[in-house]
Amino acid sequence: MKLLILEAGHCLSLAMAREANRRSDTELTIEPALQTTPARLETLRPDALVIPPLSRPLSAEPAAVTAHAEAVEACMETCREAEIPLVWCVSDQLYEDGFDVPIDEHVIPEPRDDGLRRLVRTGDRIRAELPHHLIVRLGPLFALEGSHAWLSELLDTFIEGGEVRAESDMIFCPTSADAVAMALIGMLQQQHCGADAWGSYHLAGTEPVSAYTFVSMVRTQLDTRLEGRGERVALGNAKALKHHHDQPLRRVLNCRRVLDVFGVHQKPWRLEVGRMLDAWCLVRAEESAPQ
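Structure tokens predicted for Sugar nucleotide-binding protein:
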């Protein structure tokens, strides 16, 4: 199977590259920008074009959101002409106001924010104009490297003694970029073999948690590992914010359909964070070892 993914520096693109390198059944090409051309698709003839998500679109500049939506729509038109499936990954922030219960795939986001509404219109176009598509809604991505990696941002801030502010009343499911990469390749392998299960799917980590609890857990686990290595580092602190005064805003994705259709189990975010922190500490030890 041959895949083409855009935006080379994105944490999901890097995770896809690592996963493809571990497999013998997947060939991955990565483009540097968030665009491709009909000639490029005709040359590569991938089995799918994958577009990483615009992370945290609620806090992104309006121009960046518009540019992302326009780029995705241009890719959709190119894929339609070339008859190549499109995979568009989307942030769970499109469900701006959240829901009291886990959010199913058939629930189309209806945000108030203009930028988010622009992204929803892009999704509407894909559903209407490109039968062979996957719209994959993701929880907040975390990884150790690449843009939008979040976990690496937290580690750098704590190590430098900075303060990390996070909402204690925002509930979501942090999602490992590595786990998403593994799931996407598995899903596309099944599509390549004739599953023909196109449409919208939710992918997120297990165990809903507040943003503050997630950040605090990362700090605690980092501190524990550094102490275990004999390092004394004055880590920065996590500070709780409260923006939703009546009740917590829950943005929890129901991922049952991806399990029922593709057999994809969600990865516990605690285990993924622990694994990544172990890898981060190993690199830190190697870099500090005498030459």
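The mean pLDDT is 94.
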